[in-house]
Amino acid sequence: MAHTLRVVFAGTPEFAAAALAAIHTAGFPVPLVLTQPDRPAGRGMKLQASAVKRYAQEHGLAVAQPPSLRRAGKYPAEAAAAIDQLRATPHDVMVVAAYGLLLPQEVLDIPPHGCVNIHGSLLPRWRGAAPIQRALEAGDAETGITLMLMDAGLDTGAMLGVGRVPIETSDTSATLFDKLAAEGARLIVDALLEFEKSGTLQATPQPEAGVTYADKIGKHEAALDWRRPAAVLARQVRAFDPFPGGVATLGDGTALKIWAAEPATDAKGTAEPGAIVEVSGDGVVVACGEGALRLTQLQKPSGKRLPVREFLAGATLSVGQRFGLPEPQ
């Protein structure tokens, strides 16, 4: 079914591409797609188009890739050109999902009915850059999607809709991204259909209580600090899959990536944090500040992610070896 509501879309990764695909498939005209410039990726570091750009090109949608939308930033000419293009593109509303560029007030003011953001948390919890990972890391029982009317603050706008998603004990950030992408795609199409029917976006202010911030994930956070409880480290490993992974460094400096781990409830005895207390095909058990952690998927430098049984066929880990403790951040 064709719709009359014209939607400019801004987004970059797969999470955003799912929403763009849903909006386009539902029949809403998408006169312009904004996405980040191509980035070098992979072993050859060749320029790669974003998931959103790939979808747009495959479906004949116009694409713009400004490096910035801020006239006062590093790319004033490119920002001005993109703002002019946005002004010259007739549209009704702008939908933003994991775009990755700051939208100044001047840009927020262009769409006649505002900018709607698809945010991966239950606002006001986890405002900011990495809401999905931080919810998992913190041990939240659930997360979700909040549709929000954007303002100049950091994820402070009024809410248009909420979808809740439970966090399973097996979830990683990768699986949670997929679940939330599907929920965001469903919610935004429902909101656009409702808006087209009623002519208004019904928004309610965010609650004042419960505000938390989800800082961007840094590579330095990958280091596993064995002084922490095993349950906390298990969540860290799940939260940092696919990036930056968990890292355990042996005494000889070999840094192993840890991709799956669980608290070892049956571990016996006590040992210093970081000491390997058991090695078997079921896992490598490491003593922690509280309890022990069973490592079940590991990766050697320049190797592949492997289940522990396969990993141990090509690597020697033994009881009594110790992983180093990182410097406290």
From TrEMBL:
Q: One Pfam family, short name please?
A: Formyl_trans_C
Gene Ontology molecular function: methionyl-tRNA formyltransferase activity
Q: Which residues form the Formyl transferase C-terminal domain?
A: 216-315
Entry keyword annotation includes Transferase: yes
Name the Enzyme Commission number(s) assigned to this protein: 2.1.2.9
Q: Where does (6S)-5,6,7,8-tetrahydrofolate bind?
A: 121-124
GO CC list: cytosol
Q: Which reaction does it catalyse?
A: L-methionyl-tRNA(fMet) + (6R)-10-formyltetrahydrofolate = N-formyl-L-methionyl-tRNA(fMet) + (6S)-5,6,7,8-tetrahydrofolate + H(+)
> In terms of domain of life, where is this protein from?
Bacteria
Asked whether the keyword Protein biosynthesis is assigned, the reply is yes
Residue stretches making up the Formyl transferase N-terminal domain: 6-192
Keywords, alphabetical: Protein biosynthesis, Transferase
**Gene3D superfamilies per record:** Formyl transferase, C-terminal domain, Formyl transferase, N-terminal domain
Question: What is the similarity comment for this entry?
Answer: Belongs to the Fmt family.
Q: What does this protein do?
A: Attaches a formyl group to the free amino group of methionyl-tRNA(fMet). The formyl group appears to play a dual role in the initiator identity of N-formylmethionyl-tRNA by promoting its recognition by IF2 and preventing the misappropriation of this tRNA by the elongation apparatus.
Q: What is this protein called?
A: Methionyl-tRNA formyltransferase
Question: Gene name, please?
Answer: fmt
